Amino acid sequence: MPQDPQLSRARSLIEPAGGEVVAELFDIGLSRALPWKRRPEATRSLDAIKSAERDFDAVVIGEPQRAFYGSQFGMTFPVFVHYGVGLWVPEVGGAIDPGSDAHDLVMALYGGMSKGERNRIKIRVHSAMKAQTELEGRYLGGRPPYGYRLADAGPHPNPGKAAEGKRLHRLDPDPVTAPVDRRIFEEYAAGRGMITIARGLTQDGPPLLPLQGIPRIRPPA
């Protein structure tokens, strides 16, 4: 499933052996963590492998860490073996040998690297979002947590988005629910359990958590 520069790597691998790329399959915009059966183009390749009318002998992967996440190789490669279709990757210098422990180890290594890379990206994104929230007071999206409301924080720093009328948002204490939020925190810090806190809130009738599109209401007396 190559895509430039993966396509270039794939061709460099198979062309010296007389191979030719007859189709390019690449799932764009989908997480590598998704299993192959939940990726449209990967599913298409599996269906083609199983077809008696297939017009290819092997599948070449430009970058295995983008194709196989975690343990996906171990769950997918047996399909190739069963239907007699080769799987070529540059990291082993050609076709993967089903009987080679070394090849299994290499592919397992790249599956682990793929998982680690995705986790690092996720951590970096979350860290950047947290820093923007703490240092700039920006709220980057999603439903405001209970006790807060969205407030305007000025024009968007990206000129293109600002031209579209998009603005920044920050979290401000909600005058109706913030006291309840503070009460929950103080009671929990004082050692009260969640059930005790919930019973007290129910008994006193605090503002309810608003549903989307429905204003905050108090329960009937």
Give an overview of the whole structure.
The protein has helices at 6-14, 40-50, 64-67, 72-82, 101-136, 159-163, 178-189, 194-204; strands spanning 58-60, 86-89, 94-95, 148-155, 167-173. It contains eight helices and five strands, in the order H-H-E-H-H-E-E-H-E-H-E-H-H. The protein has two domains: 6-120, 3-Layer(aba) Sandwich (Rossmann fold); 148-204, no CATH class. The chain is 45% helix and 11% strand. The chain is mainly alpha-helical and 221 residues long. Strand 2 and strand 3 (94-95) form a beta hairpin.
How is the topology of this model organized?
Layout: H1 6-14, H2 40-50, E1 58-60, H3 64-67, H4 72-82, E2 86-89, E3 94-95, H5 101-136, E4 148-155, H6 159-163, E5 167-173, H7 178-189, H8 194-204
Parallel strand pairs: 1-2
Antiparallel strand pairs: 2-3, 4-5
Domain Recombinase: 145-221
Organism: Actinoplanes flavus
Protein name: Recombinase domain-containing protein
